[in-house]
Amino acid sequence: MMKYKNLFIDLDDTLWDTYHNNKECLKELYADYKMDRHYASFEAFFAIYMPHNEELWAKYRNGEIDRQTLIIDRFRYVFRPLGIEDPKEILRINNDFLHRTTLQKRLVPGAIELLEYLRPNYRMFILSNGFREVQSLKLQNSGLAPYFDRLILSEDANIQKPHKGIFDYALVNTNSRRNESLMIGDSWDADIVGAYQSRIDQIWFNPKGCPPKGFIPTFTVKKLDEIKNIL
Fold it and tell me: I want to staple 205 with a disulfide (CB 3.0 to 4.6 A). Which of 30, 77, 103, 186 is the partner?
């Protein structure tokens, strides 16, 4: 008898290739908004945007800032040198960016093959901190939607991964038992620490081979197809 019945799977950079998809959209923004007026190159712009965006997402996960602050500050920070910092204009740019991301279809290698393998034997749910208006479209447009019973977002639970509350919310709202559930994700801080603290087993998708911090996860893989050897 299989131990696990319910799989909670992160979307961004676990199945949907967020890094490359977002980078492609940012290249389009860079060209369309003529950001070479200030930045020496797209890579120079990206080297400033990316760490700032990651810092804001970390603060959002920890409840230090709200969604509105995140989406305004990440673009206002890089558009300010071009003389663009009005919140309404920044929100328009953010919405433009988010719309473009929903049209991107690049997946992490092996994603569809893994889901095809898992679908006959498991209930599968997306568990994400991403925004409601984009995550469902990303799932649909990339071909991932048919594999999942439900999309569970931090906005539904009013709390972000890694906090225990969102994992409890996911269990209750999918009628899943904790000891029959498994979290699969790439983010050590959000997915793996959160599941561990919620007493849910974890598969850490860790393609860069980063060392764990504080505890050893239940399982670790470098490639998605390695999960077939576990489940």
Answer: 186
